[in-house]
């Protein structure tokens, strides 16, 4: 029999849940997340619980938002948690969570995308979400980022803005 995983999905906005605003000439977080309907469409054996904390560009996430994310994690019954998050401050949030999560038996993954989930093709969002779903079931407890086909610990990750990707501060690549 296939084991069903209970996965908590915490939604915070970011590019993954954005649309292109022609007047502002940039992507803007949507009012409602597309992540729940996308994940449900995958027909996995997973059971999802969705928690929309905010719908913000990650540069607008404040201490109150971080506290709300932390609160959802600390109250979660599941040990498997995925957070969709904007890429600008994703490493900062990962380090904050790593330092402040009470229960050290949970796998927490932050993921997002450089291109919105809906309305753009190709987008890295479906791959990053799928990679996170697979990884949350196999990693040891801790806080990670799953982006660009890589898994990073919260203590090593940095965003290389000039290349639009995440890297380990320990590697010279």
Write up this protein.
The chain is α/β, with parallel strands linked by helices and 173 residues long. The protein is 24% helix and 31% strand. The chain has four helices and ten strands, in the order βββαβαβαβαββββ. A six-stranded mixed beta sheet has the order 4-1-5-6-7-8, sandwiched between helices. It has a two-stranded antiparallel ribbon with strand order 2-3. Strand 5 (80-84), helix 3 (90-100) and strand 6 form a beta-alpha-beta unit. The longest helix has 13 residues, at 63-75. It is globular and about 45 Å long. The chain starts with 5 loop residues before the first strand and ends in a 5-residue tail after the last strand.
Order of helices and strands: EEEHEHEHEHEEEE
User: What is the average of the pLDDT values?
Assistant: 93
Structural class by secondary-structure content: alpha/beta
Q: Largest beta sheet: what is the strand line-up?
A: 4-1-5-6-7-8
Helical content (DSSP H or I, runs of 4+): 10-25%
The rounded distance between the terminal residues' Cα atoms is 42 Å
Counting H and I runs of at least 4 residues, what is the number of helices?
Answer: 4
- Contiguous low-pLDDT stretches (5 residues minimum) are none
Count all strands and give the number. Answer: 10
Taken from the alpha-carbon principal axes, the silhouette is globular
The main β sheet shows up as:
6 strands, mixed
Strand residues, percent? 25-35%
Please give the radius of gyration in angstroms. Answer: 15 Å
């Amino acid at each position: 029999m296939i084991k069903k995983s209970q996965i908590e999905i915490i939604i915070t906005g970011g590019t993954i849940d954005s649309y292109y605003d022609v007047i502002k000439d940039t992507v803007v977080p949507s009012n409602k997340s597309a992540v729940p309907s996308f994940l449900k469409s995958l027909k996995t054996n997973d059971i999802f619980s969705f928690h929309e904390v905010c719908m913000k560009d990650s540069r607008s996430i404040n201490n109150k938002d971080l506290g709300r994310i932390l609160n959802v994690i600390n109250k979660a019954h599941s040990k498997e948690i995925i957070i969709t998050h904007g890429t600008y401050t994703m490493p900062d949030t990962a380090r904050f969570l790593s330092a402040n999560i009470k229960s050290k038996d949970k796998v927490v993954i932050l993921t997002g995308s450089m291109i919105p989930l809906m309305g753009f093709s190709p987008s890295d969002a479906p791959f990053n979400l799928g990679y996170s779903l697979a990884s949350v079931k196999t990693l040891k407890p801790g806080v990670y980022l799953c982006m660009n086909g890589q898994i990073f610990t919260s203590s090593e990750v940095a965003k290389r803005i000039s290349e639009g990707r995440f890297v380990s501060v320990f590697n010279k690549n």
